[in-house]
C-alpha cells in the first residue's frame, strides 16, 4: 500500500504527508495482523481531508478481533461528539470512549450469537470468546497527533534536530505487558495471575491456575491452555473471556492510553508497527531505515522508488531468520512528514508548492526574472534620464 498526499497541503491536517504500509504473515500458521489508513474528506480531493487515521492491530486467538476493530474503531471514535470539539482533552476522551464502545459492541455481538439458538448459547458458555487484538492508532488533525493505544504494538517518531543531518528516534507508546508492575498489580486485584511460559510472563485466570494440572504443554504459537487463555498482554480489545460479572468489567483492560503530540518542523516520520517489528528491530534502527529509504527516493525520484514500510518488514524478517526464530506476523504503517504548518493558522497553498520537475523549476525561473525586470525597469529608465 502506498498513498502519496505530497501534492496537497491541507490546513485541516496541518501537514504535507506521504503514507505507506506493508504486512507479512511471517512463519506463523495464519495472518492475524491488520492495518488501517483512512482520510475523512469533504470531497473527492484528498487535500480536503478533515483528519487522517492510522492504525495497526495485532490479533490473537484468530484474526476476527483485529479485523473487527480495524473496520469499526474509527467510526466509533468519530461518532463521539467530543471528537469534533476542537479541544484536546475532549478529543482524547472521544478516543477513549471509542475504544470502550467497540469493546461493548463486540460483547453485544457475542451475546447476540449466544441468544440465537439454545445450542450456540450452551457452546459459548462452555467456550467463551478468546480472540483479541492490540490497537495502536494515531489521528492527524490540525498539526497534532492524537494517540490511542492498548497492547504491545507501538509508535516511534523520527525527529531531525536543527543542524543535524540524521533522524533521531523516540518511542512514544508503552507496552501493556504482564511484567509491568502497575499492570501486574491491577490484574491481580481483578482476579488474574501472571505465570511464565517459555520464559515469558503470561496472563491467566486465577481459576485456570487452580486447574493447572489439566493444562496441556504449550508450544510457541499457543496463547491458550486447555482450560483458558494464557495471554502475553495486560490490555487489549476483545478477549471477552476476561469479563467479570462480579466486578462488571473486563479483567484484560480495554482502556487505552491516550495523549496528544504537537507536530512541529523537526518531525520527519512516524512508524506504527506490531511486535513482529519491535521485538527484533530497535527504534533507532527502524528510523534509520526510513531515513535511508527517503534519501534514496530523493536521489532516484521515480526511477527506483523504495517503500519504507516494506523495507522495515523485510528487515524484521531477516532479523527473525538470523536469530533462528520463526518470524511473527509483522505489519507496519509509515507516515513521512514533508512539510508541517508551524504558524497555527491557514497558509497559502502557493507558498507550499513543491517544485519537483525541471519544467517547474524553469517556469519559476522565468517568472522570477520577469518580476525582477518589472521592478528594475523604472530604475534603469530614471538612471538613463539622469545621465542625459
From TrEMBL:
Pfam families given in the database record: PP2C
Family affiliation: Belongs to the PP2C family.
UniProt keywords (A-Z) are: Hydrolase, Metal-binding, Protein phosphatase
Record's SMART domains? PP2Cc
Q: Report the leader peptide range.
A: none
Give all residue intervals belonging to the PPM-type phosphatase domain.
Answer: 19-337
Give the InterPro entries listed for this entry.
Answer: PP2C, PP2C_BS, PPM-type-like_dom_sf, PPM-type_phosphatase-like_dom
**Gene3D superfamilies in the record:** PPM-type phosphatase domain (3.60.40.10)
Q: Which SUPFAM superfamilies match?
A: PP2C-like (SSF81606)
Q: What is this protein called?
A: PPM-type phosphatase domain-containing protein
Amino acid at each position: 500500500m502506498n498513498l502519496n498526499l505530497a501534492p496537497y497541503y491541507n490546513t485541516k491536517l496541518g501537514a504535507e504527508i506521504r503514507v505507506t504500509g506493508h504486512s507479512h504473515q511471517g512463519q506463523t500458521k495464519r495472518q492475524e495482523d491488520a492495518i488501517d489508513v483512512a482520510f475523512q474528506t469533504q470531497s473527492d480531493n484528498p487535500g480536503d481531508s478533515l483528519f487522517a487515521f492510522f492504525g495497526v492491530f495485532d490479533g490473537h486467538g484468530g484474526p476476527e478481533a483485529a479485523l473487527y476493530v480495524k473496520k469499526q474503531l474509527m467510526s466509533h471514535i468519530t461518532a463521539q461528539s467530543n471528537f469534533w470539539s476542537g479541544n484536546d482533552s475532549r478529543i482524547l476522551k472521544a478516543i477513549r470512549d471509542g475504544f470502550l464502545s467497540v469493546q461493548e459492541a463486540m460483547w453485544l455481538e457475542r451475546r447476540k450469537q449466544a441468544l440465537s439458538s439454545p445450542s450456540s448459547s450452551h457452546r459459548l458458555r462452555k467456550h467463551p470468546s478468546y480472540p483479541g487484538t492490540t490497537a495502536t492508532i494515531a489521528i492527524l488533525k490540525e498539526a497534532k497527533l492524537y494517540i490511542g493505544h492498548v497492547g504491545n504494538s507501538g509508535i516511534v517518531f523520527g525527529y531531525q534536530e536543527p543542524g543535524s543531518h540524521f533522524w533521531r528516534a523516540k518511542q512514544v507508546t508503552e507496552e501493556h505487558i504482564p511484567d509491568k508492575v502497575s499492570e501486574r498489580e491491577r490484574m491481580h486485584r481483578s482476579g488474574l495471575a501472571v505465570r511464565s511460559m517459555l520464559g515469558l510472563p503470561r496472563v491467566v485466570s486465577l481459576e485456570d491456575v487452580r486447574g493447572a494440572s489439566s493444562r496441556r504443554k504449550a508450544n510457541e504459537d499457543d496463547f491458550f491452555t486447555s482450560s483458558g487463555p494464557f495471554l502475553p498482554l495486560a490490555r487489549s480489545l476483545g478477549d471477552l473471556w476476561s469479563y467479570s460479572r462480579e466486578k462488571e468489567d473486563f479483567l484484560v483492560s480495554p482502556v487505552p492510553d491516550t495523549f496528544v503530540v504537537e507536530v512541529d518542523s523537526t518531525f520527519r516520520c512516524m512508524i506504527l508497527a506490531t511486535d513482529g517489528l519491535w521485538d527484533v528491530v530497535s527504534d533507532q534502527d527502524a528510523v534509520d531505515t526510513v531515513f535511508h529509504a527517503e534519501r534514496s527516493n530523493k536521489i532516484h525520484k521515480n526511477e527506483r522508488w523504495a517503500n519504507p514500510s516494506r523495507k522495515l518488514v523485510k528487515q524484521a524478517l531477516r532479523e527473525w531468520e538470523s536469530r533462528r526464530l520463526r518470524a511473527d506476523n509483522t505489519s507496519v504503517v509509515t507516515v513521512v512528514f514533508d512539510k508541517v504548518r508551524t504558524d497555527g493558522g491557514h497558509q497559502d497553498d502557493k507558498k507550499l508548492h513543491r517544485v519537483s520537475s525541471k519544467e517547474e523549476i524553469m517556469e519559476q525561473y522565468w517568472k522570477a526574472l520577469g518580476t525582477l525586470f518589472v521592478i528594475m525597469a523604472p530604475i534603469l529608465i530614471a538612471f538613463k534620464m539622469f545621465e542625459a
